[in-house]
Write a structure and sequence with these properties.
elongated, two-stranded antiparallel ribbon, three-stranded antiparallel beta sheet, 16% helix, alpha+beta
Length: 122
Amino acid sequence: MSRIHDLIAKHCPGGVPFKALGEIGEFTRGRRFTKDDVVEDGLSSIHYGEIYTRYGTWTLSAVSHVREELRSQLRFARTSDIVVAVVAPRSALPMSHVDDTGLVRACPGPRSSRRSPAPAPR
């Protein structure tokens, strides 16, 4: 058994419901910016490549910044949002239970009233 299955067995002995991600949250695709948009000081930003190289499982702040003039063109993560890189080479994925469609990193904050589903046992 995996660690997640051990946790489910311990904390949810009756199991957990399976739900499609679209049933529990809203998906918003980020906006592109180029290397020329990156600056030392400016708007906090998360570049998809940094999700694999600069962040762990969660973060309290961004490591990069983009020009302030881009504010109206960008989309912003909020506390408790989950940031997903939807494009990546399979070899870049550090978690064996994530396939080549994406890698999830969390922006933690106050607990939501929504319950997040656990993966269905294999």
